[in-house]
UniProtKB/TrEMBL annotation, chains A, B, C:
Acyltransferase is among the record's keywords: yes
Catalyzed reactions: alpha-D-glucosamine 1-phosphate + acetyl-CoA = N-acetyl-alpha-D-glucosamine 1-phosphate + CoA + H(+); N-acetyl-alpha-D-glucosamine 1-phosphate + UTP + H(+) = UDP-N-acetyl-alpha-D-glucosamine + diphosphate
Residue stretches making up the Nucleotidyl transferase domain: 8-220
Pathway: Nucleotide-sugar biosynthesis; UDP-N-acetyl-alpha-D-glucosamine biosynthesis; UDP-N-acetyl-alpha-D-glucosamine from N-acetyl-alpha-D-glucosamine 1-phosphate: step 1/1; Nucleotide-sugar biosynthesis; UDP-N-acetyl-alpha-D-glucosamine biosynthesis; N-acetyl-alpha-D-glucosamine 1-phosphate from alpha-D-glucosamine 6-phosphate (route II): step 2/2
Name of the protein in its database record: Uncharacterized protein
Pfam families, A to Z: GMPPB_C, NTP_transferase
Molecular-function annotations in GO: glucosamine-1-phosphate N-acetyltransferase activity; UDP-N-acetylglucosamine diphosphorylase activity
Length: 423, 423, 423
């Protein structure tokens, strides 16, 4: 199989809308950071994967690649000549040559779509774009087609009723020669975030030889923190059979059902029930009478007795005890006191809203619990309302009702923010 | 065995004091509506059962009778010439002839008492009444006896210390000819609710040949909603042995102890304990680690994991999760969020009071939990105080403490009623 | 083995700092009152044990001694000529003669240290004191040594940085003749609480022939109520193997692990897990799905279903239900409603403070739950903060958050003390 010469993996974007989670590319699914999945998968289809990282994450990317003995990867730090995707592309101008496939690091798709690019490449297209049809409104760039179903433009974030088609452009762009792309930078008038998109539109206007593919399999982004859940589910459903480490100690009185992975030195207590697809990381303890289903639990965690974790993402070194964690995301080092509970359903059964940058966003999920940032602690008997986010290093007092998002490093008591936590 | 020619089953009364429950006659016990029990039982002793229904329930009664292929039943809609029992009796004047036994549809007694009427009927009594001795005060009509223990009057709701005897008249009146009763209507001066009782007293005054029986077995009324519990218990204690549907799936790790009925397609999860007498209706799921004792669960319900239901009436399509439901009545389509709990004991150990029509009524029960109307939803971690009633279609917010009754269609949050729910 | 002629067991002190617990000497550990352990143990080393009780507890001491057929014990009621230890010593002046070892009834140590006294007694010391080294600051009397490691004074409660040594004097004083001690009373100028300590210092000044021992094994006092927990632990760790009464009924589906004592007529339900060292007193019921570890449960208690008791002292006739009781002390006749929970950890992981006589005291424990006095009742879903004490005969309303100590006979509701409970 012929490989594409260059694959450019964008890893330099910011994560403000991902709060209270951070570093989406390093988020571990089933024990492996997302970016490693991406790199390993892309190396099946590309000769060289170039990761454009930013100053704060480049070292970690490098370390991950080295620790896993991955070759054929180069890491470039994004420069700030241009912002957004254009900045990323411009940063690699001296580092790669020839054909390039540009992919977003936090978008998870079935990369075997690349095989379908090959015949289109052979037709000597200069630009190949990939779109996906969305029935519901999606905030992205939409293909505008002419009568012969040829793309004549990309309309960025149109109003819901002004969409030129139902096909959204993915960040999955093939250029036969990166020079075609780079030469537009000198001509460009805009310095804005959408320079890259403007360049594509200019190429279309100039009638560069191009075509497109429709992708019809799964697509998972990580713009918002609740999107961790469907992405996790996508990893979980790939589990087949049971894989229980020989160093794990499983009580004879525990039940393990369906595809379940249990890591090294895990302990599963009496009267537990673990229902797959579920992943439990190394050194984690599942206390007596605990039930876990369709979830991932990280390493070194304690799912304390009488807990119930359903359809949730639980990070490393998390401490639970008699909790119901439903459809929730708990980042590393989170602690829940006894009988604290996450609500995950609205009374009216409607989609759950969550506030991002002072706007109420429709999460498009009917079931969504809490999203809790790193190192935060939730007191005994606390109640977190559906879709509420608790910031990093925050404390929620015992018995509190948490209706609204809690900032980072904040102590919530008696229904009020009681000032900052010095950590 | 000779049968009584006519049995008149009163089914037209209102249910205001039964709030938040409704339609007491259609309330299902162990999968069968109360009125069907009554009709089936009475057809053992009567040639024709005439049900006096009201406009709003006649169709349902008819449907129930037809669907169950019950013959020898006629259904008459109560007219409003007279109110109360008199209205019911007057409504059937053109529909039945000859002897008649008048019985209240929502009073559950051992109908084999009818056999004891027979010798008294043979003595050509025109009127036979039945009384029951109550040690504690009961708000009803009391027999007043002469020295020869013959009834000389009925005293309606006397003061506690002015009771003429300890024998309360049941709604269980035999008339050798309904004409004797009907002819009094034309003479009657009163149009009030107690016309029927006035007529009986007039008959006694006129020295119509009459006698009475003392009934000394069980009697369960349904004036107040908490009375559902002792009536349920009476049905449950009749269960003998285990009757588990072959289509039910019972975990090998579940325990089922004592007289338990489990319906079609029921699923009982791992580590469950079901202790009889208990009834579980068709298609209900009992989640893992759930315990049910001395209760009835309706159809299509989910007793979610880690729940505990004790001595409670749970209707159809009810959703529980990690709750303690003790000595409570949950009507159909009720939902309890995780770890919501019903208190069922007062600190002082005294009888639990409950408000009805703005009066605090002594329920005469030391243990009583919540009574929740149809389609209501209780938030996660909410606390319902003993004896509190939650109206129909209401919502109790997560973490709320519910000390007082909640009206229908009301959203309780932050300890206040937050306005109506539009449904 | 030679025995000491007189052992004086001080049992007359007050217990104000021990609130909401009371009568520390009668507190039962593993089914036996502390004072009985003391007396039985001391009779191994002494010919006569003289208990100096006070007016309110002398009868109980007497009854305990008689009921257990213990000989060689005399009980003296403390007179109020002098307060504190001096008062106790003065009260026995006409009752014992010759050598005496003075020991505090509520201090638990390894009494085999007495064997080490013997050679020192043989050296004709008039006074032998015993000290113990504490690394952390301990509020007591410190030995002041001269250069030859001879004690030259006792410094009572020095400032933390002015301790003359790290050796604290225990209440464990041997006098070759009680007359040596008594004769100082007439010379004494002080009438204060510290007269006894003043006398010792005077003896040292007078250069009475004396020496001391360093004790390096366990020492448990009961000044504060939370000290019940380490003392309990000391009794528990002495349990070896399982001792399950033949009259106990243990479900086949229960797990009992490690050194566990189960008393007469105890019932252990299905899916229970009891982990030793644990003691369960006679007639107690452990409900289904309950977990007990490293705890003592008294007699006639009900550890209701789904409860979890960890590292806690639970008295007699206590009623639990779906609670988490962690690192807590529940005196006799306490009731917890369903899902009430004790917090036992501070968010900052620091030592837990508790208020005693309006001062915040460092309990020196990182894990400490609630301390609940006799006959108190905690409502369903209530939350007790770490280190909080609830007085005797008090009620905590359903769903309350209890951040501060609750007085005796107090009803806490809506976050406020709602007045006294008349009992």
């Amino acid at each position: 199989m012929r490989k594409i010469k260059n694959i450019l993996l964008l890893a330099g974007g910011d994560s403000t809308r991902f709060w209270p989670l951070e570093n989406k590319l390093f988020l571990s699914f089933l024990g492996k950071p997302l970016i490693l999945y991406q790199i390993e998968e892309l190396l099946k289809y590309g000769e060289l994967v170039t990761v454009v990282a930013n100053k704060s994450n480049a070292t970690t990317v490098k370390r991950l690649v080295e620790n896993n003995n991955i070759e054929s990867v180069q890491i470039i730090i994004q420069k700030d000549d241009y912002s957004g995707m254009a900045g990323a592309v411009f940063s690699i101008k001296n580092h790669i040559k020839g054909e390039v496939l540009i992919i977003n690091g936090s978008d998870l798709i079935d990369h075997s779509i690349i095989l379908k690019l090959m015949p289109l490449i052979d037709q000597e297209n200069k630009l190949i774009m990939v779109g996906k049809q969305f029935n519901e409104y999606f905030s992205g760039g939409y293909f505008k087609f002419d009568d012969e179903k040829k793309i004549i433009g990309i309309i960025e974030k149109p109003d819901k009723d002004k969409r030129p088609s139902s096909t959204v452009k993915l960040v999955f762009d093939y250029f036969a020669d990166i020079k075609d792309l780079l030469k537009y930078f000198s001509q460009a008038k805009t310095q804005k975030d959408d320079l890259y998109e403007a360049i594509i539109n200019k190429m279309l206007l100039d009638d560069l030889k191009h075509t497109h593919l429709i992708y019809d399999s799964y697509w998972y982004g990580l713009k918002y923190p609740w999107q961790v859940l469907p992405m996790m589910r996508n990893f979980l459903i790939l589990l087949k059979g049971q894989k229980i480490s020989t160093s794990a100690e499983i009580s004879e009185k525990a039940l393990i059902i369906g595809p379940v992975v249990i890591g090294e030195n895990v302990k599963v207590g009496a009267f537990c029930k673990i229902v797959g697809p579920t992943f439990i990381g190394d050194n984690t303890i599942v206390g007596d009478y605990s039930m876990i289903r369709e979830s991932q639990i990280g390493e070194d965690s304690l799912v304390g007795s009488f807990s119930e974790v359903a359809r949730s993402y639980v990070g490393n070194n998390v401490f639970l005890h008699r909790n119901y964690i439903g459809d929730s995301v708990l980042d590393n080092d989170v602690m829940f006191g006894a009988q604290a509970v996450t609500g995950n359903l609205k009374f009216d059964g409607e989609k759950i809203l969550s506030e991002v940058n002072e706007k109420r966003i429709d999460t498009n999920m009917n079931k969504l619990g809490a999203i809790v940032g790193k190192l935060s602690k939730i007191g005994v008997n606390a109640t977190i309302f559906p879709g509420v986010k608790v910031g990093k290093k925050s404390w929620v007092g015992p018995g509190e009702k948490v209706k609204y998002d809690v900032e980072d490093k904040t102590y919530l008591a008696d229904g009020e923010e009681k000032g900052n936590i010095k950590v």
